[in-house]
Amino acid sequence: MDKRSSLTLISQRAKEPVSPPGSSVLWSTGACSTTKQLQVHLAFREVRAMAEGPRAAAAGQTKRLSSGAEVAERLEENGHQNKRLKGGADEEGAEDQGKKSPKRKIVLLMAYSGKGYHGMQRNVGSSQFKTIEDDLVSALVQSGCIPENHGEDMKKMSFQRCARTDKGVSAAGQIVSLKVRLIDDILEKINNHLPSHIRILGLKRVTGGFNSKNKCDARTYSYMLPTFAFAHKDHDVQEEVYRLDKETLGRVNKLLSCYKGTHNFHNFTSQKGPRDPSARRYIMEMYCGEPFVRENMEFAVIKVKGQSFMMHQIRKMIGLVIAIVKGYAAESILERSWGEEKVDVPKAPGLGLVLERVHFEKYNRRFGNDGLHEPLEWTEEEEKIAVFKEQYIYPTIINTEREEKSMANWLSTLPIHDFNSSAVEMQANNKNSKNSSDLEGSDGCGDDSD
Length: 450
Prior knowledge:
Layout: H1 3-13, H2 35-52, H3 54-100, E1 103-112, H4 132-143, H5 148-152, E2 160-161, E3 170-181, H6 186-192, E4 198-205, E5 218-226, H7 246-257, E6 261-264, E7 280-288, E8 292-294, E9 297-306, H8 313-326, H9 333-337, E10 353-359, H10 361-367, H11 382-404, H12 406-411, H13 423-432
């Protein structure tokens, strides 16, 4: 019988009930012993499946896929076993360590004194300007929290800082988000590789998609300054003996409260036009606290909470209030500065500016009580924050002010500002008055900083 006749016979018999292997005509002599018999048997099964229709074929395909998946799973399992055997003890130990300390998304609560640093954000490939993140990344690598290549490419650990504080600016409540290995005693090990003026004060687990910059609802900054900055320009005062009276403090707070709400702050930053929508910012609160004496000099702290800030915005807000209180500018300049007209707004020194706290209220409402994540609040760390400020931030501001006279030198530049000049006059003056103060620290929130 030729091949075509064999296939015809198989086709005819496809309609008959099929006997299991071992009882059919083809298998009557036992297990298939020849290649030809096997080929005929397979052809018979294929023709029969076609005769039973698509449903049977689909069922057969599903069964084959299922079987294939099981085989693949076993092969994969065997493959991993082979790899483990080939890898040796070192690779096995590394794998065990990876299981003990898997990578997880966390946030770190940071405090640092910014003196001597060119801001928070790391400039990869540039060792000329040292930043806070340079020391942080080095500590993360040395402590074993991240691989060395993650330090070279920070995107690999999904790193994001909440605020990009500028040169000289300190922080008591900076937040960074990243993926790390959750090793034992992680905070202690990181801090062991950090200088004493940079501390990690807290750690919390967050959702996988958390981004400390984008999820932040608001930021609170403080600005510490000697109170003689508010002395009227016509009064000859001695810096160390000056004390702020209640009437002047009341006027300062009245002016600061004018900033509350949404305004067009294009005059309080650079490279923002009056019709740029991003120049509109929402300020929730701004006030000056009661003065206090440190090392025979009186200081006060201004607090400001806002949704977001632009580069130099806070320093210019404070600078303009000082100019008004001292008698260099009229109160009406505030309203004028929010209009389209270009106004000359002085920028207070960077020394004294501190990132106090960042707020995640929307995140906390959604995930803070879901049973899996903690709310991003730091009540238990408040004491540590206060101790750090007293030990590192405030002494740095006070000593630098006494030694370098940052505020006193800046106050001497206020008379050169023309608070009633036109836009054309201002542009001419700006070209001739570029100085080193433009290179000092800014509020540098980072969300829209240039």
